[in-house]
TrEMBL record:
The keyword Protease does not apply. HAMAP family: 23SrRNA_methyltr_H. GO terms for molecular function: rRNA (pseudouridine-N3-)-methyltransferase activity. It catalyses: pseudouridine(1915) in 23S rRNA + S-adenosyl-L-methionine = N(3)-methylpseudouridine(1915) in 23S rRNA + S-adenosyl-L-homocysteine + H(+). Homodimer. Specifically methylates the pseudouridine at position 1915 (m3Psi1915) in 23S rRNA. InterPro entries: Alpha/beta_knot_MTases, RlmH-like, tRNA_m1G_MTases_N. S-adenosyl-L-methionine binds at residues 73, 105, 124-129. It comes from Flavivirga eckloniae. Belongs to the RNA methyltransferase RlmH family. The keyword S-adenosyl-L-methionine applies. It comes from the Bacteria. One of its GO terms (cellular component) is cytoplasm. This is Ribosomal RNA large subunit methyltransferase H.
Length: 157
């Protein structure tokens, strides 16, 4: 199984980018992982929120393979602690899927088409975080999940 993280827009903050790169590197010891950045939509001030979600949704869907399992990082998603998340990852690996895709949407969330295509939703917290910080948080949690599965000391129970 491979894991892909799709995001809208690049990370501007150099410190955040450095941490994202570090955890991406660490995660690579456990699983094939890729971070794919979909460029921001141009001329958004001329678009309604719904039109912006629609355009972003089309770009997200264009990046998917038919066999991908799509998980949305969504405020209304299921909340898991780190051990539950590691079990969630294990369950997907055991299922024989080729690619697990996590998606961080744009500022207004996801289009209905993306929701319809998704196989699940996860929320990292009831709090709201910047989309750039969520990238770091999900990659760190993926790394943590694999260290839990390998009984390594990164996650202290």
């Amino acid at each position: 199984m491979t894991i892909k993280l799709l995001t809208i827009g690049k990370t501007d903050n150099k410190e955040l980018k450095s941490l994202i790169d570090e955890y991406t590197r660490r995660l690579g010891f456990y699983i094939k992982f890729s971070l794919e950045i979909i460029p921001d939509i141009k001329h958004v001030k001329n678009l309604s929120e719904e039109q912006q979600k629609q355009k972003e949704g089309e770009l997200i869907i264009s990046k998917l393979n038919t066999t991908d399992v799509l998980i949305l990082l969504d405020e209304k998603g299921k909340q898991l602690d780190s051990i539950e998340f590691s079990n969630y990852l294990q369950k997907h690996m055991n299922s024989g899927i080729k690619q697990l895709v996590f998606v961080i949407g744009g500022p207004y969330g996801f289009s209905q088409e993306v929701y319809n295509k998704s196989n699940g939703k996860i929320s990292l917290s009831k709090m709201t975080f910047s989309h750039q910080m969520v990238r770091l948080f999900i990659i760190e949690q993926l790394y943590r999940g694999f260290t839990i599965l390998k009984n390594e000391p990164y996650h202290h129970r």
